[in-house]
Design goal:
alpha/beta, Aspartate Aminotransferase, domain 1, Aspartate Aminotransferase, domain 2, eight-stranded mixed sheet, four-stranded mixed sheet, 12 helices, 16 strands, globular, binds pyridoxal-5'-phosphate
């Protein structure tokens, strides 16, 4: 018997919690059965039933050159044939570290890890180790992976101490994390080791930094001697060659990367000021390690992707993002749907409401039920966006004019269906 999306989901749910290895994939917030991908190429994914979708998920941003890009596939194949992991350093990880440092001037030294979660977690540890201070400030609605100290939600007060945002996270694990609203510069004191921020928030829909916000954070961190950490796991190597820090001109002390630099393989990296990074073992007292860190397949894929991304590539993706955002705005407006389609660099969001959000509370005003209808109407038109109202869209090198035109036409029909 041949597999269907439903039969695989049924089987998966017997042996994998919810049938998925990352919760958003289960379609809980939009309803229905996830499509199980059999293969993908360029701007499209094809499910096990043979349906091909124009794909704006692109592994939540991990794939910027399109699926199965020949250069990336070739790099991975070549690396695999030489062995998949050694427990010894390799030329590839030195080359990738050089490529990162060259593109992002604030990164004087960098260490590879295996996920964005590890990257932010380790950046925070080294910030605490270097400053000798306990507290961390984060912004409500910013996502930094699923380590305990970051799974925290704000209370109602302006600068509340965090509360655990997940069962299994203890109050003591988040006791040193303070949560404040995005786009407002907080007042710090000398107990803060670091401020971590998504320089453009892309996990509560797309919420760009307000003018002066990042500059204000930089100044406030400097005033009290805290380190500024940019979580560029999404924005890094996606919005510009040098990431959000290049676009905004604000320089962090430390940066966390992931997604794009793995070329679709499991990768993260964190880096920044040499004096801070040299606090890491074996040079300094801050412990951090990983059996698969700097893995040769992942570094080969990452290098192959970075080589495709010159300034022209970013200009091209940005023009495509602009085209996508424009087409979606037109489609929704024509169907009588009130929406804002924000774009920041190469990133495109979708807010189903009247006023563009500026923080988590305003982002939560998006119409989730309408998003679910639009999502399914798009899927029926063979266009895949993320199955969650707080994700963004990831146009990339593979979304050529033909694919954008097809998406625009599909969006026009889907918006009419969603509007009911
Ligand atoms: C995806 C993401 C992470 C976590 O990365 P994983 O590789 O999923 O662990 C961290 N920060 C931001 C901004 C992200 O978007």
């Amino acid at each position: 018997m041949t597999d269907t999306n439903q039969s695989l989901f049924d089987r998966g749910q017997e042996v994998i919690p919810g049938g998925v290895n990352s919760p958003v994939r289960a379609f809980r917030s939009v309803g229905g059965t996830p499509y199980f991908v059999a293969s993908a190429e360029g701007a499209t994914v094809t499910d096990v039933e043979g349906t091909t979708f124009h794909d704006l998920v692109q592994s939540y941003g991990a794939v910027i050159a399109g699926h199965a890009h020949p250069k990336v596939v070739e790099a991975i194949r070549g690396a695999a044939a030489r062995g998949t992991s050694y427990g010894a350093p390799t030329p590839g990880e030195v080359a990738l570290a050089e490529a990162i440092c060259e593109r992002v001037p604030s990164v004087e030294k960098v260490r590879m890890v295996s996920s964005g979660t590890e990257a932010t977690m380790s950046a925070i540890r080294v910030a605490r180790g270097a400053t000798g201070r306990p507290k961390l400030l984060k912004f409500a609605g910013n996502y930094h992976g699923h380590s305990d100290g970051l799974l925290v939600s704000g209370g109602t007060a302006m600068a509340s101490l965090g509360l655990p945002a997940s069962a299994g996270v203890t109050e003591s694990a988040v006791a040193d994390t303070v949560v404040v609203p995005y786009n407002v510069v907080p007042t710090l004191d000398e107990s803060f080791a670091a401020v971590i921020v998504e320089p453009c928030a892309a996990n509560m829909g797309l919420v760009p930094p307000a003018p002066g916000f990042l500059e204000g954070l930089r100044a406030e961190c400097d005033r009290v001697g805290a380190l500024l950490i940019f979580d560029e796991v999404i924005t890094g190597f996606r919005v510009a060659r040098g990431g959000a820090q290049q676009l905004t001109g604000v320089t962090p002390d430390l940066s966390a990367f992931g997604k794009v630099i793995g070329g679709g393989l499991p990768v993260g990296a964190f880096g920044g000021r040499a004096d801070v990074m040299d606090e890491l073992a074996p040079l300094g007292p801050v412990y951090q390690a990983g059996t698969l860190s700097g893995n040769p397949l992942a570094t080969a894929a990452g290098l192959a992707v970075l080589e495709l991304l010159d300034d022209d590539a970013y200009a091209l993706i940005e023009s495509r993002a602009d085209c996508l955002a424009g087409a979606l705005a037109v489609a929704l407006a024509a169907a009588g749907i009130t929406a804002v389609v924000p774009r920041w660099g190469t990133l495109v969001g979708l807010f189903l409401g009247a006023t563009a959000p500026h923080d988590y509370d305003s982002a939560c005003a998006t119409d989730e039920a309408l998003y679910a209808r639009f999502f399914h109407a798009l899927l029926d038109e063979h266009v895949a966006i993320a199955p969650g109202a707080y994700e963004v869209m990831f146009p990339g090198l593979a979304h050529d004019d033909a694919s954008l035109t097809a998406i625009a036409e599909a969006a026009g029909r889907a918006a009419v269906v969603a509007a009911g």
